[in-house]
């Protein structure tokens, strides 16, 4: 017998170096990889959640380096329930590439997929390049939720996945 009622597939995209793997490791394993970060080496990680008395299994897909080569394929997005688009608040190019990521996404997904925009590395206040409200505005314009996180300081990481799962539950 299955020990969960819902299975949701969540995928992370965004430029290399923005902290996707660290976010997944922080959420799934409770660690922040020190030094050499962080090729998971598997396609996905599993996290069991319980929200409002429902047991949910999240299957979380990390791109594991493919983003460098732009070889992310249809199969990666297939059957995604939610997509987390990550940029680095201290890195303008990672933000400037968002429209391109969205364009690519839209070729592969339908309108019902839940999108959430994440500005990671919120701990880097000194070297911030993208103000909070600019990220928020971009998300609003493209019909996405928005959240700033720090995988390093474990700020808002749980919230990404909790909010997202709550949204998916409402649609289920
Ligand atoms: P990915 O290529 O998107 O998977 O990015 P990684 O998770 O491998 O992280 C890239 C680099 O950013 C690593 O050196 C991490 O230590 C660093 N990093 C990731 N998350 C954070 C964060 O929240 N704050 C800070 N300051 N650095 C981070
Ligand atoms: Mg990675």
Detailed description of the structure:
With 172 residues, this protein is α/β, with parallel strands linked by helices. It is globular and about 45 Å long. It has helices at 20-29, 74-77, 92-96, 98-106, 132-141, 157-171, and strands at 6-13, 44-51, 54-61, 82-88, 114-120, 145-148. It has six helices and six strands, in the order E-H-E-E-H-E-H-H-E-H-E-H. Bound molecules: guanosine-5'-diphosphate and magnesium ion.
Lay out the secondary structure.
Blueprint: E1 6-13, H1 20-29, E2 44-51, E3 54-61, H2 74-77, E4 82-88, H3 92-96, H4 98-106, E5 114-120, H5 132-141, E6 145-148, H6 157-171
The structure holds guanosine-5'-diphosphate (GDP) and magnesium ion (MG).
Please sum up the structure shown.
By secondary structure, this protein is of the alpha/beta class.
């Amino acid at each position: 017998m299955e020990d969960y009622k819902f299975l949701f597939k969540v995928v992370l995209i965004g430029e290399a170096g923005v902290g996707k793997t660290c976010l997944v490791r922080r959420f799934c394993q409770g660690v922040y990889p020190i030094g050499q970060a962080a090729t998971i080496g598997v396609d996905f990680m599993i996290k069991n959640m319980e929200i409002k008395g429902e047991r949910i299994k999240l299957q979380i897909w990390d791109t594991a380096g493919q983003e460098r080569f732009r070889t992310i394929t249809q199969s990666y997005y297939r059957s995604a329930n939610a997509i987390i688009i990550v940029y680095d608040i201290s890195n303008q190019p990672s933000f400037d590439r968002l429209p391109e990521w969205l364009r690519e996404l839209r070729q592969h997904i339908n309108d019902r997929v839940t999108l959430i925009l994440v500005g990671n590395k919120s701990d880097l206040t000194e070297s911030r390049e993208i103000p909070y409200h600019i990220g928020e505005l971009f998300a609003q314009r493209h019909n996405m939720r928005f959240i700033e996180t720090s995988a390093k300081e474990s700020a808002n990481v749980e919230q990404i996945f909790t909010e997202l799962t709550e949204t998916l539950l409402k649609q289920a």
